[in-house]
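Bit of a strange request maybe. I'm writing a small parser for C-alpha cell strings and I need a real example to test against, not something I typed by hand. Could someone generate the C-alpha cells for this chain?
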Amino acid sequence: MKLLIDMNLSPTWVSYFSDAGIESVHWSKLGNHYASDKEIFRWAKENGFIVFTHDLDFGAILASTQAMGPSVIQVRTQDTMPEKLAGKLIEIIKKQKEILDKGALITIDEVKAKIRILPI
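Reply from user aminoacidic:
Good idea to test on real output. This should exercise your parser:
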C-alpha cells in the first residue's frame, strides 16, 4: 500500500506513515504544486497509489467517472494535522487495507469513518 499525500495536507504526514510501516510521499516531492486534481488523480492511478486528501474533488472525480481506482481517503475535519489524527487514521488504513487495495472511498471525520466500495 502506497499513499500519495495531497498538497492540502502537511508533508509531516510522511513520517507518521513511515513510522507505521506505510509507504507514502507528498505530492510536493513529485509534481507541480499547482497540478490539477485530475492530474494528481491520474498519476496516483497510473502508479498504484491511494490518494490521501482533505479535498472533496477526488470523491467527485470517482463518482462522475465511475472509476474503479485509485482509492481515496478523505479527511473531513478542521484540524488535519497528524498529531491530532494519525492514530485513528492509521488504525483505519491498516484495518481496511484489503478494501483499499480493491478500490474504495473512505471518508473520515472526528467521529466515524464511512466506506464506499468503488465504483460509486
